[in-house]
Amino acid sequence: MIRPYLLIAFLQRAHGVHGEIFAKSLTDDDARFAEGMKCFLVRDRDHMPHGEVILSGIRVTPSGLLLRIKGCEDREAAKRCCGSYLAVSREDALQLRSVDEYYTGDLIGARVSDAVRGDIGELTGLISSGGGELLVVRRQGERDVLIPFLKSVIRHIDLDVGTISVELPEGLYELYRKVPD
Predict the structure, then answer these.
(1) What topology does CATH give the domain 109-176?
(2) What pLDDT shows up at residue 176?
(3) Alpha helices in 6-109 (DSSP H)
(4) What is the largest CA-CA distance in the chain?
(5) pTM, two decimal places
(6) What phi and psi, each to the nearest 5 degrees, are found at residue 134?
(7) DSSP, residue by residue, 40-52
(8) Is residue 135 within 8 Å of 126, Cβ to Cβ?
(9) Which CATH code of 3.20.20.10, 3.30.230.10, 2.30.130.10, 2.40.30.60 fits the domain covering 5-91?
(10) Residue 91 carries which DSSP code?
(11) What confidence tens digit (pLDDT) does each residue in 138-149 have?
């Protein structure tokens, strides 16, 4: 869904004692994070920001980003930021290169439906794999379904409504969830 703020990371947990925060990037390029970058804290992806912050340090690690926020100097201050999304205003975001590209933050929260199975669940994230991106689709009480983000699978994306229509390859759904008899 298109929002006035573009989600760029999720602040997961405090790291160490000097105020670093382990973050999951929601962008395709971690080089987009820069010292001095003005960002907003958003508690829930559908709400307005509850705070403005400046990034004062960025370290890229094999398991994600370690971010420092100006004024966040210890573990307790870092913990207070955790559980929030980091966002930038849409006007400050890098422009997409083609109509077939999407901001991950715009896709998160979309309802995913299959041509045969109907509603599969909510898109909660994307995973980069060796062969491309995988959509992580969650429905409470069931296993997540991982769907390849390929033109042959994705039939239509409607950001205004917040829906993604897919046509799952035969047998993919059954890898993750039981099919009623």
Answers:
(1) SH3 type barrels. (2.30.30)
(2) 92
(3) 75-81, 104-107
(4) 57
(5) 0.70
(6) -120, 130
(7) EEESSTTS--SEE
(8) yes
(9) 2.40.30.60
(10) G
(11) 999 999 999 999
